[in-house]
Amino acid sequence: MKFPFLHTSLFVVGLFLVQATFSQKDTHYPFFSWDKVPVAFHFGKKGDLLTKSEAKFIASHSNFVVLEKAHGFPKYKYSEESIAADAKVLKALNSDMKVVFYWNAFLDYSMYKAHEDYQNKEDWWLKTAKGEYDLKDGKIKRYDLSNPEVRNWWSDIAVDNIMNENIDGVFFDALVQVTNPGNKRLWGVDKYNAIQQGLKDLIKETRAKIGDDKLIVYNGIRSTPVRNSENDFPENTDAIMIEHFGYFNSKTKESMLKDIQEMEKAGKSGKIVVFKAWPENAWLIKAFMKKSEKEKEKISKEHLDFALASFLAGAQKHSYLIYNWGYRLKMGSLLWYPEFDKPLGKPLNDMQTNGWILTRNYEHASIWVDLENKKAKIDWKKSN
Predict the structure, then answer these.
(1) 296-306: b or e for each residue (b if 16 or more CB lie within 10 Å)?
(2) Closest by alpha carbon to 206, among 241, 166, 167, 171?
(3) Concatenated DSSP letters for 331-351?
(4) Adjacent-strand bridge partners of 125
(5) What per-residue confidence (pLDDT) applies to 309?
(6) How far apart are CA 66 and CA 88, in angstroms?
(7) Cα 162 to the chain's mean position, in Å?
(8) According to the model, what pLDDT value does residue 24 have?
(9) Phi then psi for 168, rounded to 5 degrees?
(10) What are the φ and ψ backbone dihedral angles of 196, each rounded to 5 degrees?
C-alpha cells in the first residue's frame, strides 16, 4: 500500500506511536481451551516451597497461577525470593504455565524485601485528613498513590520481579479498597480524588515499564447490595479478578447476577477473567476449619454444581474458575473434582436469562442456574 501524501519520516513516527500504544492482544495470555473446565490457581503455601508432587499437580492441571504474599513463609523470609523459586519449578514442568507475582498495590506487607525500603520513607505513608497514619487493622501501612515517588518505587519493584524469565506478570491487589467511596470521609475529597488518579497512573506507569508482553492482573470486580465495581481499569490491564462470587457481601441474587454479567462483559472485551467462587464456607469460619479434610471436601463437593454452573453461564474465552475456601494451598487449592475432567466443548450460545434463571449450552454440557434459590444443574452429555 502506498502513501504518496505522507512524508517518509512522518510515516515512521506514526508507525512507532501505533506500536508503542498498548493493544489488547492475547498472544501473551495463557493458552486457553474449552476442552475441559478452565481452572486457575491462586495461593500461597505456608511454611515452605512446593513439594515435587504439589508442583506437578499444579503444572498438570492448569497453566495460570498467581503466587500469593507470604508464599514459603517463614522458611523464606521474603516473598520475592520464594515466588521466584517456585515460578522456576512450575515453568520447568509446564513451559506454557503463566506465573503471576502478587504485589499489593495499596498495603505494605512485611513479608516483602521491599517493605524494608518503605519502612524508611515515612513521608510516603498515607495519612488521614486528621494527619494520622492510615493503618489497616491498626498496623499495616498503606501506600499514598497520589505521590509520584511512591508510584515510581512500586512500579520499579514490579519490574525487578517480573523481569525474571520465569515470572509472566504482576497481580495488583486491593484496588477495591482504594476506590471505596467511604475513603472520602477518611482522607478528604481532594485527597481521595488524587489517589484515584494516582491509581490509574500507577497502572499506566507500570505498563510503560514492563512492556506489552507481561500480564497485568488486578483485583477486581466486586458486586454487593450497596456497591458495584465493574471493570474500572480497562486501559493497560490484561486480566481482572471477581473475588467473592456468592459469598461474603456478594450473596444476594442481584449481586451474583451482576458478577456473572460482568464476567461476560469483560470477557467479550478480550480480558482474562478469574472467577473466584466459594463452597459456602471460608477460612474465617472456625467451625468449618475444625472439620477433617474429608468433611471439608464433602461439603465443597455438595456446593460445586452451583459455583461451576454459575461460572459456565457467563464464561468467555480466557475465563478461569477458582473454587476453594481460602488463599493458602491447604485451603482446598489441591482438591480436584471429576467435573473438571469431563469434556466441555465450546459454548453454543450466550447466557440466557429469565428472571433469576440462567441457561446456556455447551457442546458437551447444558447449564441451568437458579440464583434466587442457589440451585443449579449441569447436564453432562455422554461422550463416545
Answers:
(1) beebbeebbbb
(2) 171
(3) IIIT---GGGGS----BSS--
(4) 143
(5) 98
(6) 13
(7) 16
(8) 60
(9) -110, 0
(10) -60, -45
Task: Identify the bridge partners of residue 101 per DSSP, sorted by sequence position.
Answer: 67, 170
Is 3.20.20.70 the CATH classification of the domain at 32-341? Answer: yes
Tell me how far apart the alpha carbons of residues 9 and 303 are, in angstroms, rounded to a whole number: 62
* Predicted confidence (pLDDT) at residue 27 exceeds the cutoff of 80: yes
Q: Please check the confidence at residue 28 and state whether its pLDDT lies above 50.
A: yes
pLDDT tens-place string over residues 289-300: 999 999 999 999
- Decide if 135 contacts 177 (C-beta within 8 A): no
Contacts of 285 (CB under 8 A, 6+ apart): none
Q: Are 172 and 218 in contact (CB under 8 A)?
A: yes
Show the cell assigned to 143.
501506600
User: Are the C-beta atoms of residues 364 and 348 closer than 8 Å to each other?
Assistant: no
The whole-angstrom separation of Cα 277 and Cα 288 is 17
Contact 195, 142 (CB under 8 A): no
Q: Give 309-339 pLDDT, tens digit per residue.
A: 999 999 999 999 999 999 999 999 999 999 9
Cβ(265)–Cβ(300) below 8 Å:
no
Can you give 200-244 as a three-state secondary structure string?
HHHHHHHHHHHCCCCEEEEEEEEECCCCEECCCCCCCCCEEEEEE
What's the CA gap between 175 and 113, in Å, rounded? 22
